[in-house]
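Justification of resources, computational component.

The compute hours requested in this renewal are based largely on the per-chain cost of generating structure records like the one below. Each record pairs the submitted sequence with a full structure-token output. That output is archived, and it is also reused by downstream analysis tasks.
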Amino acid sequence: MTFPGLGRGCRERNNIFDTDAPWEIKESILGGFGVFAKRDIDVGEVIFTDSPVILGPRNLNNPKDFCVNCFNLTNLVSCKNNCGLPLCSDLCQNSFNHQRECKLIRLMKKEDAKETTSKELVKCLTPLRSIMLSNADKNVISHLKYHKGKNHGQEIDVLVNELGFEIKEDDKQFLKIVCAVLDANAFEVITGNEQNQSSLREVLEKRLKV
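The structure output for this chain reads:
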């Protein structure tokens, strides 16, 4: 299947439909794929909406503490199930998304591993979330452009060597690709107001190039 076809499937799975879109996705002479207008587009016209395949915190040297479920910066406590992630409420603690990643983290941690450092785990959380993607969405990720080289994928080394995670070899290779995709294609988004902001990064399966 072509990349545009993969992207279309991803949008349909997220109930994002482009009816009579004024644009098309095709290969660009500049490299990769681009979005090209099929008609004149008005100033300020919304030409598409999209949702990320992966959404999570940036890997920063000194990140702020925030809730990994709603990204709030206040009333933070550690997960009651000792997965090592910060949360702000019982609602976030019991949310479907957190329950999934909490279970995954506890399954992957070695019994004799040192207690996970919450900030280090949060810094690695975005690529780790990709393990829970459907096979179709993983296929989308694998078709995105990504950086090559040994400098990408250090989050996986931290998970294995510092946090004591047991990761299957095929998952490890996929996670390293995810890290390289994030470094090449992630968008930074800010949540909250000026007093309560957290910085996230997201990977979209469709990108606007102008």
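The first strand starts at residue 23 and ends at 27. Residues 3-203 form one domain.
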